[in-house]
Amino acid sequence: MQVDVLLGLQWGDEGKGKVVDVLTPRYDVITRFQGGPNAGHTLEFNNIKHVLHTIPSGIFRGDKINVIGNGVVIDPSIFRKEIQSLKNIGFDLTKTLYISKKAHLILPTHRLLDAASEAAKGASKIGSTLKGIGPTYRDKIGRDGLRVGDILHNFKEKYQTRVDSHIELLTKFYHFDYQQALSDYEKEWFEGIEVIQQFQLIDSEHFINDQLLAGKSIIAEGAQGTMLDIDFGSYPFVTSSNTIAAGACTGLGIAPNKIGRVYGIFKAYCTRVGSGPFPTELLDETGETLRRIGNEFGSTTGRPRRCGWLDLVALRYAIMINGVTDLIMMKADVMDQFEEIKICTSYNIDGTSTINFPNEIDGDVVPNYEVLEGWKTDLTGVESTTQFPAALSSYIKFIEDYLKVPITIVSVGPNRSQTIER
Ligand code: GDP
Ligand code: IMO
Ligand code: MG
Fold first, then answer.
1. Is 245's C-beta closer than 6 angstroms to any atom of ligand 2?
2. pLDDT tens digits, the chain, 422 residues: what are they?
3. Please, what's the largest Cα pairwise distance for the chain?
4. Measured between alpha carbons, how far is residue 159 from residues 108, 138, 149, 272, 398 in Å?
5. How far is the CA of 232 from the centre of ligand 1 (A)?
6. Which atom of ligand 2 is nearest to the CA of 131?
């Protein structure tokens, strides 16, 4: 058996949560392998709308096992709130959610360091989610992190050593007024540690490989998107983990030859939240319309998302990096009323046209567009490809011909049921 990976090909918020929930019945185990509560994955079914931050999106489908892998960073206070709100609607996960002992903990001071670092950067800030992601991964790589497994031995002592060194940084380097915020965070953080202890803390690399040997099927749920990858995204305006397919190997402890299908998700247009380059961004009324109809406001921070046309240059790059085998196109319904739709097929850089995604993206990149006819049809009630308007079929064919990967799922609304397989 192999591990299938589902990940975002753009700048996050492609609809990963929805599709993982749709695909979960086909899998025995659902895992997260990177990122943390910077993610906001939305699921909708039976009049329930739920946003998950740390927990895999397979939890609403009965007795499936969900695993938070070693590559994930966990904020105990956010985790506790997620668990509580799921309990309130009747989902008790204590038997079905496992947590890797090697996953790193986001300390209260990591969150403060994120805020201090962003404030110090001023106008050139990353626009992070302020969840402490960057500082936590920095400590992990700097070999100063605190892991879930540490909860089991001399925890308070280890915690205090890290917090003391963070306080030094906050006061001496950032001159950051931390006291009130730290005492506010700490209480709920330690309550969160108690909640984590109610779950099975496992050696997830052994668990996952044993499951494969036993013939179980596994899906790995990406967070963020390829263009936010620490190595291949628009650095430094990226997140701090490997969001790409290779991240599933290091974030779960599986060998590269254990990766099976790679589902790459994209919106029928583009969005980005936070700072950084975005070649096809629309700063006009059309961008405003996409934001309004697509309800493009961050699931985690509520910030308005920047909107633009579909960028095939960036998608082609993301497909190459990830080895995508299946494409999934989301939110086609958002463009239902458009007379015409533009697609970026190349960039003009210093007077030269290219389809290769460049190393540096700045104001000098001018997208070249093809203009396609809009379908002017309400897709939200469409149940099969036979009901697709011709202009939508042409839009799909244009993308497939360019990218040379089949689009196997088209999503036409936020609900679980509004999903069409091709
Ligand atoms: P994720 O982070 O990739 O899981 O995506 P988010 O949940 O942050 O953002 C996707 C948003 O689009 C959520 O509000 C979903 O409910 C919504 N959504 C997902 N698929 C569709 C779709 O096909 N059409 C529409 N209109 N909304 C969708
Ligand atoms: P999901 O999983 C969209 C963005 C932030 C910022 C940059 C760095 O829901 O798709 P960080 O807090 O990670 O240090 O922020 O990355 N970002 C996301 N954008 N969706 C996400 O997750 C994101 N997670 C982080 O806005 O630009
Ligand atoms: Mg999201």
1. no
2. 899 999 999 999 999 999 999 999 999 999 999 999 999 999 999 988 999 999 999 999 988 999 999 999 999 999 999 999 999 999 999 999 999 999 999 999 999 999 999 999 999 999 999 999 999 999 999 999 999 999 999 999 999 999 999 999 999 999 999 999 999 999 999 999 999 999 999 999 999 999 999 999 999 999 999 999 999 999 999 999 999 999 999 999 999 999 999 999 999 999 999 999 999 999 999 999 999 999 999 887 888 999 999 999 999 999 999 999 999 999 999 999 999 999 999 999 988 999 999 988 877 899 999 999 999 999 999 999 999 999 999 999 999 999 999 999 999 999 999 999 99
3. 65
4. 10, 16, 12, 35, 54
5. 24
6. 12
Ligand 2 center–CA 384 separation, angstroms = 33
Distance 167 CA to ligand 3 centre (A): 31
Q: Which residue has the tokens 């011709």?
A: 390
Instruction: Answer whether 0.85 is exceeded by the pTM.
Output: yes
Tally of residues, the chain? 422
Closest Cα to residue 275, out of 344, 358, 362, 350? 362
Closest ligand 2 atom, residue 222 Cα: 2
